[in-house]
Amino acid sequence: MRVPALLILLNCALYASAQNSLITGSLSDDDGKPVEFASIVLYTPDSIIVKVETTDETGTFTIANVKEGNYFLEATCIGYADFVLPDLAVLTGQDLDLGQLILNIAAIELETAMVSATRAMVEIKPDRTVFNVQGTINSAGDNGLSLLRKAPGVLVDNNNNISVLSRSGVLIYIDGKRLPLSGDNLTNYLENLPAEQIDRIDIISNPGARYEAEGNAGIIDIRLKKDTNHGANGSVSATYSEGQRARGNVNASGNYRNKTLNTFGSLGYNEGIYFNEMFFLSFQNGLELDEIVNSERHSDGIDYRLGTDFFLHDKHTIGFLVTGNNGSGNHASRNRIEIGSESSTMVDSILHATNASVQSVDNGTYNLNYSYQSKATRLNIDADYGRYRNETNHTQPNQYYSPDEQDLLTEIRTAYDTPVEIDIYTFKTDYETETLGGTVGMGMKLSRVSTDNTFLFYDIPESERILNDRRSNQFLYDENVYAGYLSFARSITEKWNFSAGLRLEQTDATGDLMAFLPELQEPPVELNYLNTFPTVGLTYQYKPEHVFALNYGRRINRPDYNVLNPFREQFSELSFSKGNPFLRPEIVNNFELGYTLKYRYNFKLSYSRTLDQITRLIAPDDVDPRAGFITWDNLAVQTIYAANISLPLEINKWWNAYVNLSGTHLDNQADYGGDAIVDVQAWTYNIYQQHTFKLPGQLTGEISGWFSGPGVWGGVFIYETSWSLNLGLQRKFLKDQMNVRLSVNDVFYESGWSGYSRFNGLYAEGRGVWDSRRASLSVSMNFGNKNVKSRNRKTGLEDEAKRIGNSEG
User: Fold this and answer.
1) How many Å from the N-terminal Cα to the C-terminal Cα in the chain?
2) Which is nearest to 555 in space by CA: 260, 16, 155, 171?
3) Which of 73, 112, 720, 802 is 20 to 30 A removed from 4 (C-alpha atoms)?
4) CA 77 → CA 28, 74, 343, distances in Å?
5) CB burial class (10 A; 0-12, 13-18, 19+) of residue 95?
6) SS3 letters for 119-170?
7) Residue-averaged pLDDT of the chain
8) Residue 804 has pLDDT above 70, yes or no
9) In sequence order, what are the residues at sequence separation of 6 or more whose Cβ sits closer than 8 angstroms to the Cβ of residue 110?
10) pLDDT tens for each residue of 200-213
11) What is the gyration radius of the CA atoms in the chain, in angstroms?
């Protein structure tokens, strides 16, 4: 194992005395309850903003790097009267603890009324956009994937690929921990993650040096609900959803805390049926193929989370965390393909291909953590192990019939098994200290990934399966990444703030395709490269309530482990996919210019240029003129210009709205020789709106929807417009302990996709729909004490896990 000398240098402790001061305090209401997510603004005497912070779930806030001088502080939160603390004197090197500050409920004219603090649906922070989804009615019966469709600046295309500001390669995190899935497995996980478990979604489009360099579009961190109660407490919820198929889930969570430990856990079960229909019309090599695909997937699974933190001291905490999910499913699809000549309307033959697959999943992650935190110094150490097992068995008969479908012309029966084993080991440290007039951060991470993908292809001439050694293989992939970073942030003047960082990552990887026949054996693919990833940020406070931000970052996107395997996975004998072991990592440079008005309204312009963009391409097969396939390859260059506007609106006391608008211009360029040229440009736009109404009878209503304009999927597929309208109704009972929500999604059933592709002699038109029009009923109940807070911490198993995936769900 070779570790660059820079890692040793980056982990040398940096000890220096902090010259600036720290202001701390907490907010509570008249009853002593913490006020969460309130805005804390520190001003100079002439009303110039010095720093903006927010309180956390316990009502606590911290303002770091405050220079000597006189200030005043303002605290604001919806439902409370504004609070101003004048005449704050800060002395050099002396921290200031303001203690507990009380916010009074906003004055109202009614004799009896209750006003509760509500987070804005979208919060714009210096390093991220926060999409608060907890309590939104139209999330009832919804799932993680559907919520991402509604998130500002996020697009989920017809194949459930996720992009941010039209950039692909986004990483998905759960509670600061990278989700160990990609491809269809990621889709399945998000579809089975009930919206009732989700508190908020953090969208970090340009992460700093501390974050993994992996992921061109940045990070989407899905934060699950946390208990905030002292003593013992918990919650239970159940959801039933009905469309053309039924789905349901039940979830329970609990928390217990005393002076020495905090134990928390959750358990959930979900079961449901998913279907989709697709239609394709393809022209290639003088042939016309008209295909209909109907598929249905039944899945069920259990997810669990168990952790304990031990409080050794007020500054020292150690803990462990175990998470996992176990599930099974079966998938059946029916392909019907009419085969004829492009120059004639006559059908020569019709192919019926029936796919049946059975899948089992067993995933688990294990984390040990140590945390030290003082007023000026923070240290975090994580050791992680992840174990991922996925086995899918497929059976596929291909039957060719006469044009009238009365006579069976020929039948070819095949089967294939795809067991996958992936083990990930990581160790990482992160250290921050207040020094040199700002904040210095440094850290390192070591990771080792070992994957074993086996592809066993069987011919079934009669009733017995016979292994086909020519089409079977085993793909072994081992990867070591050694990373280190250094970052620094400070205020330059009262109006200017600066941050910068540098991350280095050394990658050593070997992909070994082990053929079952000696004559098919190929030499291993070896990768060894060092990359540097600088980040720079600059903010300017023009006037109070006017903030400009300029950010630059360089990032990398390594190919998922499963798409490196070149095995051929059939949907039918005439339609298949295959990986590419020669894929190169893509490198992107991102620039973002943002403007925030009154801490609420956000405007952003961005530019990105990606070299070796990893993308999907659809092309005709070189061997069988009737067949087409989907594969992965590197584009030469992808250039994206994007704009995004986020507008939370308070129209009146009973009507709140949120509007998000985005527009993008994309340019894909590549030349693979011959007719295999990619030269695609497209404008696209996306609109999302959500309106919340306070109705009589203590009811709350919601109307939401999105509209997506035409755009590009993969390298060459041009998709057309789609849209969705959603309705919801909510009522709380038992002093707000019970919450009942009813919702209907995609009322007009218009969220399907359609489009066309032209590449390398193949022209294809396609459209598809899924079970998106659904009615859902959700009931949740909270119980127990109301002041416990479980520690929200990350683990080290982040960068490597997302690239795990399999092509079958």
Assistant:
1) 36
2) 171
3) 802
4) 11, 10, 69
5) middle
6) CCCEEEECCEEEEECCCCHHHCCCEHHHHHHHCCCEEECCCCCEEECCECCC
7) 82
8) no
9) none
10) 888 887 777 777 77
11) 28
